[in-house]
Amino acid sequence: MSGLRPVDETIDQLLNQVESTKRTEIRTLDQAHNCCCARDIISPLDVPPADNSAMDGYAFRFEDTTEGEWIDISDRIPAGYVGSRLAEGTVARIFTGAPVPEGADTVVMQENTEAEGNRVRILKLPNPGANVRGRGQDIETGSIVMRRGDRLSSEALSLISSVGLASVEVFSPLKIAVLSTGDELIEPGEKAGPGQIYNSNRYVLAGLVRDLGMEVVDLGIIPDTPEETDVALKRAAEEADVILSSGGVSVGEEDHVKDAVERLGRIDIWKLAIKPGKPLAYGEVSGVPFFGLPGNPVSAFVTYFVVAKPFLRAMQGYSNVASQYFDVASAFEFTSGSRREYLRVRIVQDENGDLSLEKFQNQGSGIMTSVVWADALAEVEVDHHIMPGDLVRAYPL
Predict the structure, then answer these.
(1) Reduced to 3 states, what is the DSSP secondary structure of residue 352?
(2) φ and ψ at 357, to 5 degrees?
(3) Whole-number Å distance between alpha carbons of 24 and 21
(4) Buried b (16+ CB within 10 A) or exposed e, 309-339
(5) Is the per-residue pLDDT at 185 higher than 90?
(6) Domains in the chain, please, with CATH?
(7) pLDDT per position as a tens digit, 263-280
(8) Alpha-carbon dihedral of residues 4, 6, 361, 187, nearest 10 degrees?
């Protein structure tokens, strides 16, 4: 189909012109979840800080010990305590996480021993150095724990806390204005009249923005008048770093967003070679980036995921902005048309542990149940025929 812009070309163009935020702030670990790391984090210490036992058992010097012989227990070392230097020819009772005493180099698990009073014998001698976690085995002093541009997931925050840091410098979360246009829209809880529908895009877009760790400036529904549209866009530009709008950028007489954005800045309306979601607007309002997503719920979701999300991540300062994907065998037959298609699919596992993709039956752009049902988007290139068993690129949701 002539006149359609390739999806990858559009994404590259947007990423080439995006300006990453420079605003940073210090946040405690409790407040930093899902934020973007603004500075390399260097470990001030070794983790673990000393050789320690990987399990409950007995610490001993390997070359001084014989399997099956009774040996005196000279010390007892719980986690959080440091034992004395191991007396020659003895063992130390030790617990998981406790520092291995000076003079010992191996730990035998208690299941492979027999204890009697203040002595023990090793029934099965382990290999030298067994069950000892070495100092700095996980993290060494001076090593980089997290890099600038990394997402601070719960796992990342756990890692940072393990080196004793209570706060971290992050890029201040972007503020994203979310607005919907259309006199046909009403909010859930209101009674729908003839021709009215509930505003579902507000909730999916706001939720997706929050999933990125960004803040939502919720402008709700904007009435279809030039005056109201101007007021809403001006407010969005004043309060937010990016504006996300759904609907209202077609050429209809009641679609005022396009004209309003042009009055306040600039706008390009692109017809992308993507299905669902062919029409996409991008521009700026008073210097603030503006995305005009389609009004159909699935189209808004797909164009956000494929086009807007990488832009937002790049603007937030992330070093890796591409959506992760992997190739999975198709369980369906499908033929695409003149646009790249993103099918709502589910990843299933058979009795042998092999993965495949199931396709939701109705792939219409207004079928939001397909998005709820799916756990991935399957990317199918233009004019491509897929048969069961063919590998398909899948983007987990």
Answers:
(1) coil
(2) -110, 125
(3) 8
(4) bbbbbbbbbbeebeeeeeebebbbebebeeb
(5) no
(6) 7-22+172-316 (3.40.980.10), 41-47+138-171 (no CATH), 52-133 (2.170.190.11), 326-396 (2.40.340.10)
(7) 999 988 888 999 998 888
(8) -80
